[in-house]
TrEMBL record:
Descriptive protein name: DUF305 domain-containing protein
Keyword Repressor set for record: no
Sequence ranges assigned to domain DUF305 in this UniProt record: 68-216
Range of residues in the leader sequence: 1-24
Top-level taxon of the source organism: Bacteria
Organism: Microbacterium gallinarum
InterPro entries: DUF305_CopM-like, Ferritin-like
Keywords: Signal
Keyword Manganese annotated: no
Length: 221
């Protein structure tokens, strides 16, 4: 990734926080009626219809669902492991490109975790599952490394570490993208803030996967 990754993550944070502020601000006496015409698309064979100001004002954004809550909690755990992985880099790699990549990942995912925690707190949802019924393991969460894989990465050094780090982080990122896809498949991600974040994860980590695949090919070749 290039330096704008931090700006991108901060931009997503700003968008989410702005949305959260709008949801949690002091209630107003009366919401202003829309002044711009709002057109409702007609069904197949039916004409479009311009809504009245009262009808347009009654439209509301989709609310969050339990699938969204589980997604956020899972992504917090997923990001936490990624940050643990990047923490190994300083002492185990002399590769400047790998070190820079890890630093940027650490910054961006730390910022994103703060956004996700705030999202839960502002909705009165515990950051951790109070029932502990949603297990966090490599078997239950896509891309999550097993304890054995984490131990293998921690024990490696030099070029061996660089190759393992890139290999495991590609797997980790692919898992995050799968989590986004599963969220939408379950009809989650309808709330604007969650939709924005999920699409950011899918796009941002997809770009990083492409870069890491290129770096891995260079080091293995």
């Amino acid at each position: 990734m290039t330096p704008p990754i931090r700006l991108a993550s901060l931009g997503i944070a700003a968008l989410l926080i702005a949305g959260l502020t709008a949801c949690t601000g002091e209630p107003e006496d009366a919401a202003p009626l829309p002044t711009t015409p709002v057109v409702q698309l007609g069904g197949p064979g039916e004409p479009n219809r311009t809504l009245s100001p009262d009808e347009a004002a009654a439209l509301t954004s989709p609310s969050y669902s339990e699938d969204d809550v589980l997604f956020v909690r899972d992504m917090l755990h997923h990001h936490s492991q990624a940050i643990e992985m990047t923490g190994f880099v300083v002492d185990r790699s002399d590769d400047e490109d790998v070190r820079l990549l890890a630093e940027r990942m650490d910054i961006s995912q730390t910022d994103e975790m703060a956004v996700l925690e705030k999202w839960l707190q502002d909705r009165g949802e515990p950051v951790r599952d109070p029932d502990a019924s949603h297990a966090h393991s490599a078997d239950s969460m896509p891309g999550l490394l097993t304890d054995a894989e984490m131990a293998q990465l921690e024990a490696a050094e030099g070029e061996e570490f660089d190759i393992l780090f890139l290999t495991f982080m590609i797997k980790h990122h692919q898992g995050a993208i799968q989590m986004v896809q599963e969220l939408y498949a379950a009809d989650g991600g309808q709330e604007p803030e969650i939709d924005t974040f999920a699409r950011h994860v899918e796009a941002d980590q997809g770009i990083e996967i492409t870069r890491m695949q290129r770096m891995l090919a260079e080091r293995e070749g």
